[in-house]
Amino acid sequence: MYLVKIYVTYKQSILDPKGEAVNDALHRLGYQNVESVELGKYFEIKLRADDRPVAAEVDEMCDRLLANVNMETYRYEITEMEAL
Amino acid sequence: MKFAVPVFPGSNCDHDMVNALRDVLKMEADLVAASTTTLDGYDAVILPGGFSYGDYLRSGAIARFAPVMDAVKAFANAGKPVMGICNGFQILTEAGLLPGALQANRSSKFICKTSDLVVKNNQTRFSSAYAAQAHIQLPIAHGEGNYYCDAATLADLKAHHQIVFEYVDNPNGSTANIAGIINRAGNVLGMMPHPERAVETILGSTDGLGIFESLITSQKEATHA
């Protein structure tokens, strides 16, 4: 069994109005040292090991569904875990 | 002419669309379920607006995998007309039937108002009823209508006259003021404004009629050719 943590964020060229709104709110709370906020998506996927390479399968999931590669990028961490 | 209007869980402009098609334009129109696997017998498909699957993940990202979308892709690949309005446009980009993507409005506000548009290309089967560079008014109602594509895609869209509708006063931050585009083959149109909400005087505008009339005329010409 694998635990896959996937982070999806906007590409640099894409506006992130929600991140900007959070950034502004943090400033209003007094955290003037906040330089920027990126608001993305986080997925935790538990994946049973099979004969496919895990990374290739995760790449495919991200490309097909979890991220829109027109405007988003993704990165992930894969760790082995004990079977449930 | 017979229209199919696929209904996804969360679609909410489907009945407005059917009202425009049946009651105003006197066409045949059926609501078809997202689980439908064939669109045989229909002349055109219109993906309606709304919040399919709650807009979970991204607008249109889940709807794209509904069974009816395999049928829509086959329908489009056969050269038959497919139109996506608002959420329908988002679904068409997610499905790869149109290039680019719809991101959150620049203002991060949901915008619901009448928008001024220019018909940039009236040489399509969806826009031939309008005069060249006609100014029309259609309602918009979206939170994620900010059209994005990279520079290469934009150059491609321009080179092949695929930008059909442009905003006069860009309300949402769309690249190149884009409100609606067509695919290279000319049979798949996606647009954020709602023509089905502008088909009767009592609604405030009848400027949306031209899109349906264009499509009906092109179908007649194809049948009689």
From TrEMBL, chain A:
Domain of life per record? Bacteria
Keyword set, alphabetical order = ATP-binding, Cytoplasm, Ligase, Nucleotide-binding, Purine biosynthesis
A Pfam family annotated for this UniProt entry = PurS
A single GO CC term for this protein reads: cytoplasm
UniProt catalytic activity: N(2)-formyl-N(1)-(5-phospho-beta-D-ribosyl)glycinamide + L-glutamine + ATP + H2O = 2-formamido-N(1)-(5-O-phospho-beta-D-ribosyl)acetamidine + L-glutamate + ADP + phosphate + H(+)
Task: Return the SUPFAM superfamilies for the record.
Answer: PurS-like
Q: Which GO terms describe its molecular function?
A: ATP binding; phosphoribosylformylglycinamidine synthase activity
State whether keyword ATP-binding applies. Answer: yes
Pathway entry: Purine metabolism; IMP biosynthesis via de novo pathway; 5-amino-1-(5-phospho-D-ribosyl)imidazole from N(2)-formyl-N(1)-(5-phospho-D-ribosyl)glycinamide: step 1/2
Q: What class of enzyme is it?
A: ligase
The record's comment on protein family reads: Belongs to the PurS family.
Q: Which PANTHER family match?
A: PHOSPHORIBOSYLFORMYLGLYCINAMIDINE SYNTHASE SUBUNIT PURS
- UniProt-listed NCBIfam families: phosphoribosylformylglycinamidine synthase subunit PurS, PRK05974.1
The UniProt function text for this chain reads: Part of the phosphoribosylformylglycinamidine synthase complex involved in the purines biosynthetic pathway. Catalyzes the ATP-dependent conversion of formylglycinamide ribonucleotide (FGAR) and glutamine to yield formylglycinamidine ribonucleotide (FGAM) and glutamate. The FGAM synthase complex is composed of three subunits. PurQ produces an ammonia molecule by converting glutamine to glutamate. PurL transfers the ammonia molecule to FGAR to form FGAM in an ATP-dependent manner.
**What quaternary structure, including any partners, is listed in this protein's UniProt entry?**
Part of the FGAM synthase complex composed of 1 PurL, 1 PurQ and 2 PurS subunits.
Q: By what name is this protein known?
A: Phosphoribosylformylglycinamidine synthase subunit PurS
Q: Which gene encodes it?
A: purS
TrEMBL record, chain B:
Q: Which CDD domains does the record match to this protein?
A: GATase1_FGAR_AT
Q: Which domain of life is it from?
A: Bacteria
Q: Name one GO cellular component term.
A: cytoplasm
Mind listing the GO molecular function terms for this protein? ATP binding; glutaminase activity; phosphoribosylformylglycinamidine synthase activity
The membrane spanning regions, by residue number, are none
Q: Where is the active site?
A: C86, H194, E196
- Keyword set for this entry? ATP-binding, Cytoplasm, Glutamine amidotransferase, Hydrolase, Ligase, Nucleotide-binding, Purine biosynthesis
Compartments reported by the entry: Cytoplasm
Per the UniProt record, which EC number(s) apply here?
6.3.5.3, 3.5.1.2
Q: Its pathway?
A: Purine metabolism; IMP biosynthesis via de novo pathway; 5-amino-1-(5-phospho-D-ribosyl)imidazole from N(2)-formyl-N(1)-(5-phospho-D-ribosyl)glycinamide: step 1/2
* Record-level GO BP terms: 'de novo' IMP biosynthetic process
Reaction(s) catalysed (UniProt annotation) = N(2)-formyl-N(1)-(5-phospho-beta-D-ribosyl)glycinamide + L-glutamine + ATP + H2O = 2-formamido-N(1)-(5-O-phospho-beta-D-ribosyl)acetamidine + L-glutamate + ADP + phosphate + H(+); L-glutamine + H2O = L-glutamate + NH4(+)
Kindly name one Pfam family recorded for this protein: GATase_5
**Task performed by this protein:** Part of the phosphoribosylformylglycinamidine synthase complex involved in the purines biosynthetic pathway. Catalyzes the ATP-dependent conversion of formylglycinamide ribonucleotide (FGAR) and glutamine to yield formylglycinamidine ribonucleotide (FGAM) and glutamate. The FGAM synthase complex is composed of three subunits. PurQ produces an ammonia molecule by converting glutamine to glutamate. PurL transfers the ammonia molecule to FGAR to form FGAM in an ATP-dependent manner.
Under the heading PANTHER family, the entry gives: PHOSPHORIBOSYLFORMYLGLYCINAMIDINE SYNTHASE SUBUNIT PURQ (PTHR47552)
Q: Relate the assembly described in the record.
A: Part of the FGAM synthase complex composed of 1 PurL, 1 PurQ and 2 PurS subunits.
Task: List the protein's name.
Answer: Phosphoribosylformylglycinamidine synthase subunit PurQ
Q: Which organism is it from?
A: Lactiplantibacillus garii
Record lineage: Bacteria, Bacillati, Bacillota, Bacilli, Lactobacillales
